[in-house]
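[Q] Does anyone have a clean structure-token version of this?
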Amino acid sequence: MSETLNREIDNATTSAEFLTSSQAAKRLGLSMATIQKLVDNNVLQAWKTFGGHRRISLASILNYQSANNFLDVPRQSTDRRAKVMMVIESPEMTARLKKDIPQWHLPLQAAFQESLTEALLELLNDKHDLLVIQMSGLKKQQEKVLEILQKFMSSRHTVAHTLVLTQENELLPSSTSGAPVSIQVLNKDLSPMWLSAYLSGFVAQRRL
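[A] Here you go.
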């Protein structure tokens, strides 16, 4: 997180600054419907005035903006549904997401693979907009996975953005001298509520 963004979050916390829904939507580049969904899912912290108007915490907006930085995601002006591939370690979570994702009514089509190897084999011939990977295990093993992902994305260009969810702190892709590779690593548990908000922001940013 940049020092500037850190200062903004600190200032927002101490001054209890809030934005309207329209201001939040403009700042994040999202639709009003997506902002409402983020608030309903408690991703953005908000309260209502006596007149029924929603006020959203600027600190939570800045935190969301930092945690979900889509600046490196190639933007496309297209009506094509976003193609998302997921490698989820828990069979129970996979089963739940297969059931929940169609109910979110997002303009995307999701596919699930049981392993990273199967996912990369699929990506050899079928381009996707987003690859979501849930990782656990030893840190060295996870670092090796990131290295494989980096090499694959640098050479194949068949996935625009990769999201890695891990319990390891300070797990980062290694630096490369070539073109930047869009891999986002978050120290976060996977939950349907959070994923719904993330995908809403992803598809909204993709259409800008």
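[Q] Thanks! Anything notable?
[A] The longest strand covers residues 159-166.
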